[in-house]
Amino acid sequence: MTGQGEPDDPAAAESASEAPDDDEPRIPVAVIASVGTAAVMPRKKSRRLAGALALLVGGLGAHRFYVGQHRLGLVYLLLCWTGVPAFVALVDGISLLTMSDAAFRRRFPQTK
Q: N or C end of the chain: smaller count of CB under 10 Å?
C-alpha cells in the first residue's frame, strides 16, 4: 500500500473497482463450465452398447438401466434368479443390435 490509500498491485485495484454491488458470492467461470456441462447436456445413448450390455449382463437388467427404463431394470434384477430375464435379455440384445439407429432413437428417446 502506498501512503495515499491505493493498493500497490494494479490488478488488485482493478478488481476492487469492478466489485459487484450485490453481496452474492462470485463463482469462477471455469467451475461453472466444468460442473454444468454434464448436468445440462446428457450423453447420447449408444445402440451398440445397449445391445452388448443386454447380451453380456442383460439377465441383471443392465441394458434397461442404461436406456433409462429403471423400473423394468429393477424387475429384471429382482427376477434374475429365475433365468427368465436372461432369456428375454438375449432376445433384447439381438433386437437392439439389428435395429437401425433411427428405430433405437424412436424406441428410447433421449429426454433427460
A: C
